[in-house]
Prior knowledge:
- The chain is an all-alpha fold.
- It has one domain (about 5-95).
- Helix content is about 65%, strand content about 0%.
- It has helices at about 10-35, 45, 55-65, 70-75, 80-95.
- The longest helix is centred in the N-terminal third of the chain and has 26 residues, at about 10-35.
- The radius of gyration is 16 Å and the shape is elongated.
Amino acid sequence: MIQIEQTPMFREFMVQRDFRRKVSLITTSLITTLQIDPRGNQLVNVCGTGVESDNCEAVYYWVQKEACCASCIRVLDFKQLQRRLVHFLLDNTHQAEYHE
């Protein structure tokens, strides 16, 4: 009898679920730290693909793209990721500076 915990498909499912959870936590932290309106849609065309419904989904897409995989997300530094998002937004929205 095969135990479900030992199947490769189940292990991959668990890795992906953990990855999505970490991306979601990082997204929430970035939105909170940078005071981004999660229900607005200003960042959909900048951070996302253009089909996301709000800034939260757009930033989630950006974080997922930056993290790329479950092994890469383990070594991400939040402050560094925050700086990369700010620089990305400044470069792609034609703003000159960021004010906290």
